[in-house]
Amino acid sequence: MLELYQFQHSPFCLKVRLALKAKELAFRIVETTPGIGQIDVFRISGQRKLPVLKDEEKVFSDSSLIIQYLETITKEPRLFPQDPIKSSMAHLLENWADTTLAKAVQLELIKATALDSTLREALLPEEFPKSFNGLVKKIPCELLNGVTDVINPRESKALLTSLEKLATLVSSTEWLVGNSLSIADIAIAAQLSLLKFPSSSGPKLRGKGCPGFLDNPQLDPLFRWRDKLENEILETDPAIL
Ligand SMILES: N[C@@H](CCC(=O)N[C@@H](CS)C(=O)NCC(=O)O)C(=O)O
Predict the structure, then answer these.
(1) Which atom, in ligand 1's list, is nearest to the CA of 16?
(2) What atom of ligand 1 comes closest to residue 10's alpha carbon?
(3) Which three-class secondary structure state does DSSP give residue 29?
(4) How far apart are CA 188 and CA 25, in angstroms?
(5) Which of 14, 51, 86, 189 has the fewest beta carbons closer than 10 A?
(6) Domain 2-73 has CATH 3.30.160.100
C-alpha cells in the first residue's frame, strides 16, 4: 500500500493527493505534526520536507518526483503529456506553480493569518491540544502586524495580475494544456488552496483564505475552475483509507 506522509493543509501534499486520486491509486495518509513529526520524515527520506511517498522499500520526496513515479506505476490518466510541445508547456506551468506561485501564495497567507485569529486557529493541525488553539487565537493582532510588512504591495499586484490572466484562460478552456487533465492543472489548482481553501480542506477552512483574492470577482472563474477540477478528481473513487 502506498503511504503519503503529509501536512494536512500543504498545497504540495494536496498536489500529490490529487494525482493519486486522479490515477485511482489506493493510499494511506500518514498525518505529520510540523516539527516533531518531521524527525521521522528525516529518518525515512533523508530530508525534512513533505510530501514524502513510501512504496514498500522505495521512498520519494518532492511532489514533482513523486508524481513522476506515480506516472510510471499507473499510466492512465497520463498527467505528463507525451507530445513534446504540450510536455514543455505542462513542465513550465508546473514549475511556475511550484516556485513563483507557491512563494507568493504563502506570503499572502502569512499576511491573512496575521490579521485574522480565526484563520490562524483553523490552520492548526487537528492533533494539536485545544489549549494551544486558544492561545494561538489570543495572540494580539498588533504583535503580528510586523509580519504584514513581509509583503511588498507590488508582489501582491503581480500575483493578482497572473491570476487574472489564469482566470481568463480557464474561462475559455477546461484544461491548461491540451484536451485533458495534466500536471499543470493539478499543480496550479493545489497552490490556489492557500488563497481560498477548497471543500477538501474541511469545514473549518473551506471558503476562508486571503482577502483581496478570495473575494475578488475577477478571480471567480478561477476558483470555480479549481472547485470543479477538485470535485471531479476527488469524487472519482473512495481509494483513501
Ligand atoms: N519542492 C517541494 C516543496 C515541499 C515543501 O516546501 N513542503 C513544505 C510544506 S508545504 C514543508 O515540508 N515545509 C516544512 C519545512 O520546510 O520544514 C515539493 O514539491 O514537494
Answers:
(1) 20
(2) 10
(3) strand
(4) 21
(5) 86
(6) no
* Ligand 1 centre distance from Cα of residue 48 (Å): 8
pLDDT tens digit sequence for 122-140: 888 766 655 655 656 666 5
Least Cα distance to 66 among 15, 131, 133 occurs for: 15
**pLDDT tens digits, one per residue of 11-41:** 999 999 999 999 999 999 999 998 999 999 9
- All residues at 6 or more sequence positions from 230 whose CB lies less than 8 Å from its CB, including other chains: 18, 189, 198, 199, 200
CATH code assigned to 84-234? 1.20.1050.10
**Ligand 1 binding pocket, CB closer than 6 Å:** 7, 10, 12, 38, 48-51, 62-64, 98
Q: Whose CA is nearest to atom 13 of ligand 1?
A: 49
The predicted model scores a pTM of 0.91
Those residues whose C-beta lies under 8 Å from the C-beta of residue 69, and which sit 6 or more positions away, are 53, 55, 58, 60
